[in-house]
Amino acid sequence: MSERRWDGLSVCVAGLGVSGRAAARVLAAHGARVTGVDARDDEAQRAHAAELEAHGVTVRLGDGETLPGGVDLVVTSPGWRPDVPLLAAAAEAGIEIIGEVELAWRLRPDNAAPWLAITGTDGKTTVVRMLASILTSAGHKALAVGNVGTPIVEAIGGSGGSGGSPPQGQQAEPYDVLAVELSSYQLHWSSSLAPFAATVLNIAPDHLDWHGTMDAYVDAKAKIFAPGCLAVYNADDETSTALAERADGVDRRAGFTLKVPRPGELGVVEDLLVDRAFTGSPTEAAELAELGDVHPFAPHNVANALAAAALARAYGVPPEAVRDGLRAFVPEPHRIQHVADIAGVAYVNDSKATQPHAAAASLAAYDPVVWIAGGLLKGLDVDDLVRSCAPRLRGAVLMGRDRHRLAEALARHAPDVPVVDVPDTDTGAMDRVVNEASALARPGDTVLLAPVGASFDMFTDYPARGAAFIAAVERLPRPAGRDAAQR
Phi, psi at residue 281, to the nearest 5°? Predict the structure, then answer.
């Protein structure tokens, strides 16, 4: 729909966060009559409103529920649920509702860069940044966009976030290829996306409070396998495999696995990452990298590297660029981040592990573990997680609002594991948590922050929780000698 006429179209942009503001600017630059609405009316939002009004956007703050009159299209921020009053009113009136990602797809110029798209419950940001590193190592001008932080509408026409993309035909797109991270929310509000290649990394229960049911959550993820795309699936994940198999109209399918790969798959042979999907012959295999090139090293991060490699190889990247890109990749903080070794105990920050599937992957990388967990569990069940990780637990320290549910699961499935309950919620709570974990740990153990829950009961976000953990570890006393020198 790149030829769609935007001049004079009346568009309501619902939610003026980062992606909403970007959408409003771009739409105004294309001649649409834009009204941006947001329930917030604070100093920061008023400053954003002034900037948008300078670009011709009408802004209404303090009311996020009322649909403006005469609207032809609603562009919603991804976090807005379909049942909020403004969106419900638009749907009842037959007004189309899309998200910023769908808007970006419709605004692409004729020479648009192809999209390599990533979704899944866990690992999206790591894979999209690994992929961008690999593409760059191959000499392509590439950018990681989408849910990773950079709105896609700011990448499709060379705006660089400076005030909106130019109208079609006035400027060629500056990128060869885009690595696109897509959340289930963004996919829910999309209808015509058709990436060159796409992957569903894994599926586990998450965001059920938003989608309502597990089936609805899976259906949103499935949208990424559009007709004409190359579907990359996780051969070790039953749902990812099933979604690729049943996707209509995909041009080709390729899997990735932590096992020895079969023809049509990427996988692991001894200490090598190997490609048997994009070599030109089912009997050939291409060496892509060594396990030591994947950092931080953990089984689920090897799977992330294989997924990124599969998308890059689908785009034609040579094997050596996969190796170089993985070596150049700089991991995001708060994802299995090694913080320190103190008195023979490793301290690892995986504050991003905000649901059971992510925490299980993190716990599987270490043994024995003193586990720091807790937060907002969002209604998710933790029994399977605790049952599976029980044999590797040295102890557990629990914090946050839903810690009692973790304590109950540990009592059922790991009754011999020492558990320390920390009810504190003040700014010094993390220090007590880390001190209690340190007291439980022995040389050779790992103290692992893999909270399972969201952070908002005690912290601004998961990076703030991770930063508090790092600071608390740094305040631990160091013994004299070698460990003291690591400070």
Answer: -150, 135
Neighbours of 475 (CB within 10 A): 11
Please name the helix (run of DSSP H) or strand (run of DSSP E) that holds residue 288, with its range, or none.
Answer: strand 286-290
- pLDDT tens by residue, 83-100: 999 999 999 999 999 999
What distance in Å separates the CA atoms of residue 397 and residue 433, rounded to the nearest whole number?
6
Cβ(395)–Cβ(420) below 8 Å: yes
Helix (H, G, I), strand (E, B) or coil at 297: coil
- pLDDT by residue (tens digit) across 146-177? 877 678 998 885 433 333 344 443 444 589 99
Asked if 398 contacts 418 with a C-beta cutoff of 8 angstroms, the reply is no
Which tokens hold the place of 103?
């808007």
Half-sphere exposure of residue 355: CA atoms within 13 angstroms, side-chain side: 15
The CA distance from 38 to 54, in Å, is: 17
Tokens of 487: 């400070």
Torsions phi, psi of 209, nearest 5? -65, -25
DSSP-derived letter for residue 121 is S
Residues comprising the chain, all counted: 487
